Amino acid sequence: MATAATMVPTSPPDGLQKRKRSRSPEHSEQPPSSRRRSISPPPSRLLDVKVSDVDPARRAERERQLAARLAEKELEKLEKEKNGKKQPEFDAAAEFAKLTSTRSGGVYLPPARLRAMQEEAAKDKASAEYQRITWDALRKSITGIVNRVNVGNIKHVVPELFQENLIRGRGLFARSIMKAQAASLPFTPVFAALVAIINTKLPQVGELVLTRLISQFRRAFKRNDKIVCHSTTTFIAHLVNQGVAHEIIPLQILFLLLERPTDDSIEIAVGFMREVGAFLAENSPKANATVYERFRAVLNEGAISHRVQYMIEVLMQVRKDKYKDNPIIPEGLDLVEEDEQITHQIQLEDELQVQEGLNIFKFDPNYLENEEKYKQIKAEILGEGSSDEEESGSEESESDEEEDEEAVAEKQGIEDRTQTNLINLRRVIYLTIMNALNYEEAVHKLLKVQIKEGQEIELAKMIIECCSQERSYSTFYGLIGERFCRLNRVWFDCFEQAFREYYETIHRYETNRLRNIARFFGHLLASDAVSWNVLDCIKLTEDDTTSSSRIFIKILFNEVSESMGLKTVAERFKDPEVKMACRGMFPMDNPKDTRFSINYFTSIGLGVVTEEMREHLKNAPRLIMEQRRAMLEAESSSSDSDSSDTDSDSDSDSDSDTDSASASDDSDDPRRSDRRRRSPSPYRKDRRRDDSHSPPRRDRKDSPSPPPRRDDRDRDRFGSRRDSPPRRRDYSPDRRDRDSPRRRRDYTPDRRRARSPPDSVSPPPRARDDRDRRDRSRSYSPPRRGGKDYDRRRDDSRERGHDRDRRRRSVSRDKYTGRR
User: Fold this and answer.
1) Is 702 helix (H, G, I), strand (E, B) or coil?
2) Which of 167, 169, 244, 808 could be bridged to 239 by S-S, CB 3.0 to 4.6 A?
3) How many domains, in total, are found in the chain?
4) Residues 6 or more apart whose Cβ sits within 8 Å of residue 294
């Protein structure tokens, strides 16, 4: 400043006078004026615009800019007046498109202007601007609903959530619920229950949430992020408890955490095991035991800190207490039936499709079609009608439809899908039974309970359930069931149906409950409150029964026999109707099942009812033989009728030449003819003879081979010519000895045969006709070896064969002598 003050101005060489510089005050609070020289003259001002500013240069610039803007507006007005067209002050659609193209959150718009822009964009519902508006509204709605869900209002929040398009916004839902769960871990069971409900109707939403949780756990485990791992495993544990995720996922996570134990990994595993341990103990006991063995090994190694060791000891105590503070599903959140739940089997090492693109907005060319499809899905889930059909039609039709809908709504009422009414009914029945002094009072009060048609079976089941929960059986419940069965046929049928259902599922009950249920039904059977025809569902075989069902039957019949007496029970089983119903309990079609039933009833003290089965089992071989004999006789009779027809035809066509030829063939081999005359006897293999004087059996190799069979035609021709005797043959001893070895005789009394006449007098017997031979071969059936019946039949057959031989030889001898 001092230098500037001491400077001396010089005059210009050309005589031009320069403007003097103004001195700035030394002690002035105002900023110094501009030292800039204006070369050009100031611009002409179209309008008299004044701007108040301390700095003159800045004031002049602002006045110039304002004047330029006003001049542009004046020119625009002049152009509009010339063209005669009126345009809106601003293009709302263009402004909104410009707004949506930029990042949201940085521009403030007045509410009135924003509503105007949204109304302009909503005129075209297929446009990208309108889809962006609905996307933002969907994101805000889903986030708000998820943030305010709790145990008390979850039943009301679920319908609101289904009102939104969860298929389009499933990525938004997954992100919102994961953020909300990570921020509030105590509400994890509520969020898991919400996901389980949505998973029953929209499985792709539940699968996406589970996939993102597993992916998040893998990233957090690699980064050693303990907080994220803990929150993620907690959410996965409750999804497993709800049945959304398969049990293989927690086992893989535990294996990963316990493979290389550290303080953080063991801490996460302990927290995870406290949440999912009850589920694994019930559904995978072996795997659960293996996990605890690994925990015990880590504890014994001592490689972790004392704090974490104490956490493992606390977990062991929690397991010992059967997870009483960490149930599988907390009270009030068991909202999904086990049969309706859809379980996703996603493993920890699978390639996961996280679908991060679902979190951001994308233009959908088929937006309107997809919205209509979701409306139909929403109507199917919530039971609502489409809004388009209600809007269409004239005023009269709309009024008629409204009246009809009101009438239908009054008739149908509200549909209860949470089974709240059923739970309340069971609670009322239970409290009524517990508050009654005796069974008559209980029956009197239960009859006053309002039960809808079709729910009568619930009363019978609740009586049985209350009986099963007692420490020991009480006749109080049996008398209640007996009184109900005698009051009305409806209750009679309900208790019979309950018997069949409980017998099919008796393996699910523990021994004490099983005993009480069996004694309850034993009381009803002993008092004839229910029909004994309910026993037709019992099939007492080794394959059709289990250990639980056999215990149930034992206790049931012990109760019946104690009440009725063993003699009365045996007489009751002899009743034709009861006998027909109990065919499954006393099987007689298979000897194995019959023996099993006999042994079972004998072991439980009811051997008296097995007398008929024992008799049947004793006579089973004889009955089988008789059936086989009858079958063989039927077959032989049918074959005899066929052979008689064929023999009559062959006899009419035979001639004398073939008969003489066949006779000559028979006369050439007397030993073969004699062997054919004898009755056939079955080959007895390895037979032991009791008579020590009988000659030893001849070896099979020494016996001559049987003669070859002759042609049937020759035998028929010879048999048809009975009047012509055969040729005489030489029966000298030398020839007989030369032809075949002498046959050894059996001198036992049973096997003694009639002697043939002398060789010189008796001619060789003629061969019998083929019909007789076939009859003997077909009517004969080898008896079953072993036993007295076999020996008796064998002796009878042998005697009949000896009689036939004697008659045959006598007839042949008479014919031969008469012919001579």
Assistant:
1) coil
2) 244
3) 3
4) 254, 258
